Amino acid sequence: MSSKAVPARRNAPSGSRRPRMGASRRRMFLIALGFLAPALVLLAGLVLYPILYTVVRSFFSADGGAFVGWDNYVTMFTNDSTFTAIRNNVIWVLVAPVACTVLGLLFAVLLEKIKWSTAFKLIIFMPMAISMLAAGVIFRGMFQESPNLGVVNAAVVAVNSAFGGGDAAYPGANPRTDVGLINDGGVIASEAAVGAGTEVNFPLVGVRADNVPASAAQAESADTASADQITGTVWLDVVIGGGGTNGQIDDGKTGLPGIRVDAVDASGTIAATTETDAAGRYVLAGLGTETYRIALPASNFDEGYQGVSWLSSGLITAVIILSYIWIWAGFAMVMIASGLSAIDRSLQEAARMDGANEWKVFSRITAPLLAPVLIVVFVTLIINVLKIFDLVYVIPPGASKPAANVIAVEMWTVSFGGGSNQGLGSALAILLLILVLPSMIINVRKFRQERKS
């Protein structure tokens, strides 16, 4: 039998050694640290140091010269403005993220079925390209109380008028002088009391032509009053282009329809009331033998229905939240649409083949598959609304600012906006950080889970 020769083992040269793993890892760590060092320095200088300094500063007085312990935190939670800010932040967290997420989901799902979906998505996302400051200026202009300035109230007034809510209103009206009429606090009335069977006319001036309704006709003299009536005419005592005699009904002078006319007795009781017709005529009937003053109430001469006071204290938070939804619904739509494009469509088709309607496909398949994306969008929006500042600072007028206050605005106000109390402002900043941290931690964990999967 022949045996194979076993090759002799070669011994490594005594001077060469394998590099140890510990040294290699240290070298790699030092290289990685060198690359990360600039970012770590920036992170420490721009994030870590400000946080630590704010924590320390919150325990000092307004000028930073004296240590006051927890006094700033006690003051913070005993101020009415802080409670208003916290309450408004709670409203923001409960309303804005939910509304944006729901609208984003609806847009993402429904716009897939529209032919021009790309154009619609672009329109919905376009507000994200506008700065929050510019969006605030836009919404403040849109919701101005005067319908001559605010487009929303202009539309509300137009709809109200179209459905018969536009009562006649003649702001600025005044009686002609030397015709036996007075203006008593906005009420235009006869200077002397009169009895039944007489005629009392009201030549008025100061009415703008655009306030005269289209139904107004040429002014006409009222019929002769019977024994239990007082009659008369209310007209605009102006002829366009000039001419005519003051205090007399001439051609070209317009009757003022829809004006309420009251007969007021000596005790101040309204004995009879009526309204003028298209020619401005009125008839007060059923009067007794006593004397009456004929009055046109002040309600005839107010501005009429002017819409809703959107920027008042009661509605200002709703308007600001609406502006936020207008901006951020597009962000939610894009995020959810990206998740929607990644789901397995075969599951939806299988459900449809099994007879499921679109609502069941959406609620049982699409929504559960989108749950991770929806959670990320929702939590991101919560973090965003807790820090909301720009819109709340820009949109409210001065009288409504306290009602719209939020923590970020309160922090800026007490620190730099006239309060000059950076100790209290630092305490508010720490409160805001504590409120934001849980949402940030949830988002970080969610990102890690998605990366592992």
Structure description:
This protein is α+β, with helices and mostly antiparallel strands. Among the domains are: 79-148 and 310-407, Orthogonal Bundle (MetI-like fold); 174-301, Sandwich (Immunoglobulin-like), CATH 2.60.40. Helix content is 48%, strand content 9%. It is built from 12 helices and 10 strands. The strands form 2 sheets. Strands 1, 4, 5, 6 and 9 form a 5-stranded mixed β-sheet that branches. A hairpin with a 5-residue loop joins β7 (260-264) and β8. α3 packs across α11 and α8 (345-353) packs antiparallel against α9. The longest helix is centred in the first third of the chain and has 37 residues, at 21-57. It is elongated and about 120 Å long. The two termini are 61 Å apart. The mean pLDDT is 86. It is a multi-pass membrane protein. Pfam families: BPD_transp_1 (PF00528), SdrD_B (PF17210). Residues 1-20 are annotated as: Disordered.
Give a short summary of the structure.
This protein is α+β, with helices and mostly antiparallel strands. 48% of the residues lie in helices and 9% in strands.
Write the layout of secondary structure elements.
Elements: H1 21-57, H2 71-76, H3 80-110, H4 117-125, H5 132-142, H6 151-162, E1 174-175, E2 181-184, E3 187-190, E4 202-205, E5 230-236, E6 254-255, E7 260-264, E8 270-275, E9 281-284, E10 293-296, H7 316-342, H8 345-353, H9 358-386, H10 390-394, H11 407-415, H12 422-452
InterPro entries: MetI-like, MetI-like_sf, Sdr_B, UgpAE/MalFG_permease
Protein name: ABC transporter permease subunit
Pfam family, one: SdrD_B
